[in-house]
Amino acid sequence: MSRWLVTGAGGMLGQDLLAVLKDTASSVTALARTDLDITDPAAVRAAVTDHDVVVNAAAWTDVDGAETAEAAATAVNGVGVGHLADACASAGARLLHVSTDYVFAGDGTSPYAEDAPTAPVNAYGRSKLVGERAVLTLAPDVGYVVRTAWLYGAGGRNFVTTMLRLAAERDTLDVVDDQRGQPTWSRALAQQLVALGGAALAGSAPAGVYHGTASGETTWYGLAREVFARRGLDPDRIRPTTSAAYVRPAPRPAYSVLGHARWAAAGLPPLPDWRTSLATFLST
């Protein structure tokens, strides 16, 4: 029986990981932020002991807040991840670390390959890139970086549930139409991570970088319209606008579409099309 550790278990993705792992024969240790401070190397080493797979869903996720607290964000998203990588390398445990599309500049016009040059445009992206490099440097044989983007799910605040809430409060909604990405259901990502962990244990998945985003692409405007249509609401209530109309402390990449070629090396298919997963999520 494989022994799994999930850090950040109280978050949206962490909750879905626990739900997926409950359906397997695995032994699971769930540690929320209050249970494990990943910036504490001794605590991390003790937590990792006697586990075969560690899935790191612990992260500083306040993108705008990181602009004025980059050191604090990097302590969690970078240094803390390094502690996990070091502990996993020492213990021989596979580390599945969840990263982000924000490590890219967002000025591309075709999907970013797993080995495309990184150039984050905000503090959050820089902090996450520190974590990626720690995994690949300190745990080259057992470290897996899985970049995701535009996550939504049942266990936390996200764009999809916000649109549904606002639909009941406003006649029309203005939504950005000049940022492209891949809306990704956290449950689908959790299933993919568990499959990758199993493949890693079986020796069939090479360590390195994978892209855990839904197939296909759209804009926030396109996603909002699809949410409305799937719920029987008039999608024309959604009006397109530009990023310039919603200035935020942290700049966002304009193009966050990721390529999925590397899943073939692990013998796994990429995640389903974003519309398929959204329909399943909205029907549950």
TrEMBL record:
Its EC number is 1.1.1.133. Residues 4-283 form the RmlD-like substrate binding domain. SUPFAM superfamilies: NAD(P)-binding Rossmann-fold domains (SSF51735). Catalyzes the reduction of dTDP-6-deoxy-L-lyxo-4-hexulose to yield dTDP-L-rhamnose. It comes from Luedemannella helvata. It is an enzyme of class 1 (oxidoreductase). Gene3D superfamilies: NAD(P)-binding Rossmann-like Domain, UDP-galactose 4-epimerase, domain 1. Belongs to the dTDP-4-dehydrorhamnose reductase family. This is dTDP-4-dehydrorhamnose reductase. Keywords: NADP, Oxidoreductase. Pathway: Carbohydrate biosynthesis; dTDP-L-rhamnose biosynthesis. The lineage of its organism: Bacteria, Bacillati, Actinomycetota, Actinomycetes, Micromonosporales. InterPro entries: dTDP_dehydrorham_reduct (IPR005913), NAD(P)-bd_dom_sf (IPR036291), RmlD-like-bd (IPR029903).
